[in-house]
Amino acid sequence: MLESVKIARRQSEIRQKLAELAGKPTPTEDEIRSMEALDGEYRANETRYRAALIAEDTERREAGADLETRAGREWSELVAGFQMRQVIAVLNGEGRPLDGRTAEVVTELRNAGGYRGIPVPLLALEARAGETVSTGTPDPVQTRPIIDRLFPASVAARMGAQMIAIGAGAVEWPVATSTVSAGWATGETGAVAGPTAYATTDKALKPEQTLGVQMRITRKALMQSGEALEAAIRRDMAGAMQAELDRAIFLGTGANGQPLGVIIGAATYGITATAVDAAASWATFRNAVVRFMARNAASTPADVLALIRPEVWSFMEDQLTATAAPKYEFDRMAEKLGGIAMSSTALAAPTGTPAACNALLTTSAGGVAPIFVGMWGAVDLIRDPFSDAASGGLRLTALTTCDVTVARGAQLELLTGVQVA
């Protein structure tokens, strides 16, 4: 109990005793002495009460800040104990029910939305402490928020994309599109520029695209199940989903069940596409950064992120500037920009003669992410008991629904014809 509360209760008791003693017409000497003692204690407690409030003010502020973030931390800690092997055992029909943190997570997800199979949170697909990844090097766990994060090494995340976790329905993001103009009064009685209507455009995220991952687990693997199998399933599922999401976010066709990617849908999203048709160099990307700054989308080159193919990096590493202090073109670009991501999945391979490819620049203006990725619910893990029944194996299908949209096309620029030969 807080000290201030204890003092307040004692003050209430003193007031009650003083009221009883003050109501007597002829108090005795002992009662008079008691009233003097209670009065002195009351005055001393007033000073102690004020001091306690001052001392506890900092504690209250810290407790309030802790309450604001406790829910996210508790969920992350709960998911950290999620065991994929329990889910596999239940889907394989071993008869053992889910228990512990795994059961709590599944119950919470089922209460939030309906699933045909067993829901698996995306956060549970990340590598845990002590697990062995494909390179044989342990990868320690890091606490990451559920919102604003795709996968740890996702290209979309490195390019500033914001992930929105959606329970159900569609989400629309109102984006200001009005232009406010300023003007000087023409004279002492002249009027300034007239008012401009505040207009917004809604960019919707809709649950119309479903991504699926199929996994086959042999009977031998099931007999040798343990932490190694759990790590392998989580790693393979996360890797497959990350690669396909990165490809769809940038190269999705918008047809055959795919979302409309940023690069393929540049014209639809209002993204400026500039034909470079020249060898990759820092000057090529610098001109695009200048265009960002000219339209107030970026303040400095450090606000701009670049997505390039590995072939562009290799080509620019061979180009040495002929100046008093020679420096490779890629090093000049890396020093100026806020970050450079390289991917062979998010960008198409170079084609033509000379070989050329695309590059993408993004920036976050006013705290607004250049790309929004909506993901509905958790991963729905469903068992197929028939496809591999003859061999005693288990086939799993993981389903997740997602969509992509761009709030402001001015925060992105597509460079085409970046030559690497």
Task: Please render the helix and strand layout as text.
Layout: H1 3-22, H2 29-80, H3 84-91, H4 100-112, E1 118-120, H5 155-158, E2 162-166, E3 171-176, E4 200-205, E5 209-217, H6 219-223, H7 227-251, H8 266-269, E6 272-279, H9 282-294, E7 304-308, H10 310-317, H11 329-336, E8 339-342, E9 356-363, E10 372-384, E11 394-405, E12 412-419
Parallel strand pairs: 2-10, 6-12, 7-8
Antiparallel strand pairs: 1-10, 3-4, 5-11, 7-9, 9-12, 10-11
Descriptive overview:
This protein is an alpha/beta fold and 421 residues long. It folds into 2 domains: 71 residues; 278 residues, hypothetical protein PF0899 fold (2-Layer Sandwich). It is 38% helix and 21% strand. Helix 1 packs antiparallel against helix 2.
**What is CATH's topology name of the largest domain?**
hypothetical protein PF0899 fold
SSE order = HHHHEHEEEEHHHEHEHHEEEEE
Mean pLDDT equals 79
Low-confidence stretches: 130-150
Q: Strand portion, in percent?
A: 15-25%
End-to-end separation: 74 Å
- The total domain count is 2
How many extended strands? 12
CATH superfamily of the largest domain: hypothetical protein PF0899 domain
Estimated structural class: alpha/beta
The helix content, as a percent range, equals 25-40%
Number of helices: 11
Q: Would you identify the CATH architecture of the largest domain?
A: 2-Layer Sandwich
Overall radius of gyration: 32 Å
